[in-house]
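Quiz preparation item.
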């Protein structure tokens, strides 16, 4: 049997991807704002930028946790688990 015509069974598990979200990017930018607030003194005192960055970071973190728990509870309770069968090939010694 040639390798191009062998039967490969379907995988027994399903993969569920989370929905796309802007929350991780907003979280990263907010943490960067909070850390960089040490050096920022433009129009406001630096502690104001730190508070704004931390507040935005907390809101983005809350959004990420809420989305993760929502997508976790949308998963099916039981999944038929069937291990994937690896194809076996006979290897002949070189002549």
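Solution:
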């Amino acid at each position: 049997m040639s390798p191009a015509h062998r039967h490969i069974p379907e995988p027994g598990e399903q993969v569920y991807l989370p929905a796309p979200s802007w929350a991780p990017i907003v979280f990263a930018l907010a943490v960067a704002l909070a850390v960089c607030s040490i050096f920022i003194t433009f129009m406001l005192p630096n502690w104001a930028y730190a508070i704004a960055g931390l507040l935005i970071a907390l809101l983005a973190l809350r959004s990420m946790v809420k989305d993760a728990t929502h997508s976790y509870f949308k998963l099916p309770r039981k999944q038929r688990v069937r291990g994937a069968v690896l194809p076996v090939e006979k290897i002949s010694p070189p002549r």
